[in-house]
Write a structure and sequence with these properties.
144 residues, mainly alpha, two-stranded antiparallel ribbon, 50% helix
Length: 144
């Protein structure tokens, strides 16, 4: 599945499902437009346009635990379903924790300002608004 994420500036980059990279409107992010996808040092704590909403659980571990639970179904269906429920709960908890941490980081950035003095100039607030948009779009899986 392919969809575009609008930037409101007439340029609509293609984004493939699972691709969490979002174009950064700041001039210093020009390297990303040239295919440079190396992580920026400010990605988590700063402007955050390359934030990944996936839970902090290794997907292969989740897959292995799922295969184990599914394989146990024939011999003990009730235990298998309990294991699947436990796994689902852990994944949900990890996703919620990651979402809450990101939202808190976003809020802290605009409430405290880059200099720690609170608030921010219009440009900082514009970037904060953009970061919130990216956050919401990542959560809902599409444009807002």
């Amino acid at each position: 599945m392919r969809h575009t994420m609008g930037t409101g500036r007439g340029h609509e980059p293609e984004v493939t499902e699972g691709d969490t990279r979002v174009p950064d409107p700041r001039p210093e992010a020009a390297g990303a437009a040239d295919g440079d996808t190396s992580p920026r040092p400010d990605a988590e704590a700063g402007a955050g346009r390359s934030w990944d909403p996936a839970p902090g659980i290794a997907p292969e571990d989740v897959r292995e635990r799922w295969r184990t639970a599914q394989g146990a179904f024939v011999d003990d269906p009730e235990r298998a379903v309990r294991e699947a429920d436990t796994l689902a709960a852990e994944v949900c908890d990890a996703v919620v924790a990651r979402l809450n941490a990101r939202r808190s980081a976003l809020r802290s950035m605009w409430e405290n300002g880059e200099d720690g003095g609170g608030g921010g100039d219009t440009e900082s607030l514009r970037l904060a608004m953009h970061d919130y948009r990216v956050f919401v779009e990542n959560v809902i899986g599409g444009d807002v």
